[in-house]
Amino acid sequence: MAKDQDKTILKMTVNGEPVEVAVNPAWTLLRVIREELGLTGTKEGCGIGDCGACTVLLEGKTVNSCLVLALQAEGKEVRTVEGLGTEENLDPLQESFIEYGAVQCGFCTPGMLISARALLDKNPHPTTEEIKVAISGNLCRCTGYVKIIQAIEIVAQEG
Amino acid sequence: MKKRGIGYGSMFYGLGYGFSRTDIASATLEISQDGSIIARSGEVDYGQGSDTVFCQIIAEELGVDYSAIKLITADTDVTPDSGPTSASRLTFVGGNAFIKTSRSLKKILNGVAEDILGASDLVFREGMVFSRSAPEKSISFKKLAGRAYARGVPAVVTEWYNNTTQDVDPETGQGDAYATYCWATQMAEVEVDTETGRVEVLRIVAVTDVGKALNPLNCEAQIEGGVVQGLGYALEEEIKEEGGYVKTGTLGEYMIPTSLDIPTIEVHLLEVTEPKGPYGAKGVGEPALIPTPPAVLNAVRDALGLRIHKLPANLENVYHLINGAEAGN
Amino acid sequence: MQSYEYYAPRSLPDALEYLAENAKNCRIIAGGTDLIPALRNEDIHPAFLLNIMEIAEVGGISETEQTVRIGAITTFNDLAESGLIRKEFPILSEMALSVGGPQTRNRGTIGGNIASAAPAADGLPVFLSLDAEVELSSRRGKRNLPLNEAIAKAWTPAWGNDELITAIRIKKLPSGTRTAFYKLARRQAMARSRMTISLILRRDPAGIIEELRFVPGSVMPVPRRMEEIEKLLTGKVPTDELLDQAARAVGEEMVKVTGIRWSTGYKKPVLGNLFRIVLSQLITAG
User: Fold this and answer.
1) How many CB atoms lie within 10 A of CB C259?
2) What is the ipTM of this complex?
3) Residue-level pLDDT, tens digit, chain C, 286 residues
4) Cα–Cα dist C276/C282, whole Å
5) In this complex, do C36 and A69 lie within 8 Å of one another by their Cβ atoms?
6) Which one-letter DSSP state was computed for residue B19?
7) Is residue B286 annotated as part of the catalytic site, yes or no?
């Protein structure tokens, strides 16, 4: 563990709330989100940018939070899956994922939801191909992607 | 040049452990005095949907809403031994265990209800227990649970389902080794680029005998996922090892399909009731992916007139197949 | 656990000063898509880490009449979404969309792609085909270096460790020039290139090739223009026979550089095949 004097104060906005947290410069954004802020919805899959499980929005754009140093988020806006909806008031994408069977083991789900949300925020009525491209950095071993694509398509048609 | 081909892969798969190997599942149900139901099973749901199906089964048997059930699974502190989560056996073995347990519990509750209502033709449906011939004789399931509790009636039941089968004849190897068999056929349509060796799968049609689909959406999802795993197995996934070290130890090196690698996938559920299965159901997990690689490789054979004997059918192996050279690696 | 001093200046002079002071043990981080895994794997142990992502002068895409300047911290998605790039260098837009997945395209930068100098880099061969120049800045001043002189060997830039790549400069192409990028990979996203083809072609009204630039990617330790192939076709009408001849020569040229390796049996013929297919499509298209 790093000693406290090695730490720097990081200020950023997470899910709309300003946060201040002491971080070691070697920590990734993923580590700070999960370990320091306790937002464990974001998953660590591979830790080296190969799987997309740790996808969050940084300034509205999808990034692998394992490939961003925590201090690189200084002054920036981060949105995690916890910022999509609440248990009582889910994001339409979350509703649709449940309704249309897009979740199996669930490990890729938070990252998938973030990638899908980023797409729909920018392009509310994407084509199937655009949906496939938007989630192409998010690996899924269970579903074969079919139900995930369908769940996003349905929100895009209704949205 | 791009060449197209169509291929089929068919399989049958023995469900459970077979060959006289122990194959049992326990299940426990407990009713609280407020009518809520706690179910316990040692089976693990790692995404295939067994939790959903178990709750559906309990709800069906006891005539209660699915949401009234709290299921606790795979915690050796509190759940009974249900055998491993493998062999596509959960719906079949674990599901049958929950049918038995639910029916034992229902028998106990039924006795209490007969006494209270003065009727013996009772039906459990939609959270109510009532007489078929005189429906006005009724009590809610919740109330019944409270009355049973007040009378000191046992509220916890554990049953197990034994799926252990006979062994085959040791001399001839003949016999019926498994409780039941799953059947599936898939068709693959591929396009092979003869100048690069790239195989593109354009379409998969998957037909699976699921017995009875207890949850059709889950069955489809299992089959779609299995097909895409099968595509990875056929075309790209490979553990490379060098001097005892795995050279494909990351998800950038061991490459599973992405959303841009999937073809059109058509899933058809063929429902042929299996008498031993829960409501006629069979397993679907592993059967989903087994026919995919042979279907793809047969389609490559159809496209090229050449049969690939080395997996995966990746760029190099297919190119060298076409050009008659041994793959370098 | 890594232990380094982290610095994220907003001004270029501050960055160059810091770099000059700490040149020996300093690593520059931009998108981090290569550097962070290397830090995690403990492949490198820098004492100083200089983040250049906050420096406005190192970003942005701008044009003059003759040239386009692309800031080094321009991400692949910035490149893909730029109307100016699509108009002037569609080959760059195509390349940018073939890189990794959306998340890596949102972080990975063109400066990083060049400075990392990976043999399988996707950006590097395309920039080489465009005869790009790198703009290098240091406390000592600013200079432009032709990209083909900027990479010493695989993974190693040829510029000083006190110098920062601040931009790529590309001359606009003469009208009538056509470009093509093709990537062969083991899957359709999140894939390192197995081979890429970058082609720039201009023909006269009679169909004679006036200019051809060709850079194969992922086949040599450092990508470079295959000038022998370019010469073979320039000044000629590309007949089927000539294209077949050139395709065979492409494989030979590759082997001259790489020697025979386990992958040669595949790459030698297929690189030629891809060259012929992509060039034929470019010719047919115009």
Assistant:
1) 8
2) 0.95
3) 899 999 999 999 999 999 999 999 999 999 999 999 999 999 999 999 999 999 999 999 999 999 999 999 999 999 999 999 999 999 999 999 999 999 999 999 999 999 999 999 999 999 999 999 999 999 999 999 999 999 989 999 999 999 999 999 999 999 999 999 999 999 999 999 999 999 999 999 999 999 999 999 999 999 999 999 999 999 999 999 999 999 999 999 999 999 999 899 999 999 999 999 999 999 998 6
4) 10
5) yes
6) T
7) yes
Residue ranges matching CATH 3.10.20.30 in chain A:
4-83
At the topology level, CATH places domain A92-158 in DNA polymerase; domain 1 (1.10.150)
Q: How far is CA C42 from the centre of its chain?
A: 26
Domain of B112 in residue numbering reads as: 24-162
Among the candidates B162, B192, B216, a domain finishes at: B162
Domain-located, residue B167: no
Q: Which of A25, A44, A24, A26 is nearest to A34 (CA)?
A: A44
Domain end (from B131, B162, B193)? B162
Instruction: Flag if C264 and B328 touch (Cβ within 8 Å).
Output: yes
Task: Write the residue in A103, A106, A135 that is nearest to B259 by C-beta.
Answer: A135
- Give the H/E segment covering residue C267: helix C264-285
What pLDDT digit, counting tens, does each position of A139-150 carry?
999 999 999 999
Q: CB contact, 8 Å: A61 with chain C? A: yes
Q: Which of B189, B286, B316, B326 is catalytic?
A: B286
Alpha-carbon distances, residue C218 vs A50, B85, B320, C37, C183 (angstroms): 19, 44, 20, 21, 10
On the CB side of C233, CA atoms within 13 Å amount to 33
Task: Say what the alpha-carbon torsion angle C263, C267, C268, C271 is, to the nearest 10 degrees.
Answer: -170
Q: Are residues B147 and B270 in the same domain?
A: no
- Same-domain status, B145 and B262: no
Give me B176's structure tokens.
Answer: 């019926």
CA distance B73 to chain A (A): 15
Q: Does any CB of chain A come closer than 8 Å to the CB of residue C8?
A: yes
Residues of B in contact with A152 (CB under 8 A): none
At the topology level of CATH, where does A4-83 sit?
Ubiquitin-like (UB roll) (3.10.20)
Q: Are residues B78 and B34 in the same domain?
A: yes
Same domain, B47 and B153: yes
A80 touches chain C (CB under 8 A): no
Q: Phi and psi of B41, rounded to 5°? A: -150, 145
Cβ of residue B257 closer than 8 Å to a chain C Cβ: yes
Q: Do B228 and A145 touch (CB under 8 A)?
A: yes
- Are B100 and B33 contained in the same domain? yes
Number of residues in chain C: 286
Please tell me whether residues B152 and B72 are part of one structural domain. Answer: yes
Domains and CATH numbers, chain C: 5-51 (3.30.43.10), 63-171 (3.30.465.10), 178-285 (3.30.390.50)
Query: Interface of chain C against chain B, CB under 8 Å?
Result: 101, 184, 186-192, 194, 262-266, 269-270, 273-274, 277
Q: Are residues B121 and B57 in the same domain?
A: yes
Global pTM exceeds 0.90? yes
B250/A46 touch (CB, cutoff 8 Å), yes or no: yes
Domain total in chain B: 2
DSSP secondary structure letters along B229-269? HHHHHHHT----EETTEES--STTTS----GGG--EEEEEE
